[in-house]
């Protein structure tokens, strides 16, 4: 039972345009949501997070939006750069625990 | 440079071997984690240590044995593994003295069981 899902396995975007990565979840007991970026042969790197009581968090080119009623979050990258090409994972923290549950990942390719 | 260091980077072992994966962090984090990731799958939680005590074991087979000798080190002892245990093993750490702290990952150990 996959509690955190990323339904798009891959996404291609032109350099300078917006990249939108999506994530859906099923468990209402998640307190925080996070996005990670992963390059080949490296561990995931933390990008940005959002509390379940917020609906938006912004950090430079990265913005995360949370729609609790739809159990949906998205990561916007503007403008997209070739160096953003990587696999992006969303993750959710189960309330009162140390359990971070990861989505299946979306491979983003930014075309120069 | 990653602040969580994992050794070795690659490991090939037979099904009768005993080996250990090592993880070290010097960020003062008091929670440490082992995740397993297979190709095209998300990282899956195996174990969590908090203040050097095991707090989560996700029903991992006993052929995987974690150890947290001190607040900076985390080991994963491997014995009698199966070929299906071949995967990327990721160590992570986080703070514990706040509502939430993101995981900081190492670069992983790529394990192949022959």
Helix fraction bin of chain A: under 10%
Strand content bin of chain A: over 45%
Main sheet characteristics of chain A: 6 strands, mixed
> What is the CA-CA span between the terminal residues of chain A?
38 Å
Instruction: Please state the overall shape of chain B, judged from the principal axes of the Cα atoms.
Output: globular
Oligomer: heterodimer
Overall pLDDT of chain A: 95
**Helix count, DSSP H or I runs of 4 or more residues of chain A:** 0
As a percent range, the share of helical residues of chain B equals under 10%
General shape of chain A? globular
Give the largest chain-chain interface (CB within 8 Å): A-B, 25 and 28 residues
pLDDT averaged over residues of chain B: 94
Poorly predicted regions of chain A are none
Helix count, DSSP H or I runs of 4 or more residues of chain B: 0
Which value, in Å, is the CA radius of gyration of chain A? Answer: 13 Å
What portion of the residues of chain B fall into strands of 2 or more residues? over 45%
Category by helix and strand content of chain A: mainly beta
- Compressed to H and E, one letter per element, the order of chain A equals EEEEEEEEEEE
């Amino acid at each position: 039972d996959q509690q955190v899902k990323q339904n798009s396995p891959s996404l291609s975007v032109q350099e300078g345009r917006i990249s939108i990565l999506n994530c859906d979840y099923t468990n209402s007991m998640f307190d925080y949501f996070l996005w990670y970026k992963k390059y080949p042969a490296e561990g995931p790197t933390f990008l940005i997070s959002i509390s379940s009581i917020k609906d938006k968090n912004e950090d430079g080119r990265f913005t995360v939006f949370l729609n609790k009623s739809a159990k949906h979050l998205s990561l916007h990258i503007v403008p997209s750069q070739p160096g953003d090409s990587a696999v992006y994972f969303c993750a959710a923290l189960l309330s009162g625990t140390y359990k971070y549950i990861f989505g299946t990942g979306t491979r983003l390719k930014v075309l120069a | 440079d990653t602040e969580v260091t994992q050794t070795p980077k690659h490991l090939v072992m037979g099904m009768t071997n005993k080996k250990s994966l090592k993880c070290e962090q010097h960020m003062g984090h008091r929670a440490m984690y082992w995740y397993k990731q297979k190709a095209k799958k998300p990282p899956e939680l195996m174990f969590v240590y908090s203040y050097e005590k095991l707090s989560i074991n996700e029903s991992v087979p006993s052929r995987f044995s974690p150890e947290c000798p001190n607040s900076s080190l985390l080991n994963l002892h491997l014995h009698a593994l199966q070929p299906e245990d071949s995967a990327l093993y990721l160590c992570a750490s986080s703070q514990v003295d706040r509502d939430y702290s993101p995981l900081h990952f190492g670069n992983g150990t790529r394990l192949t069981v022959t």
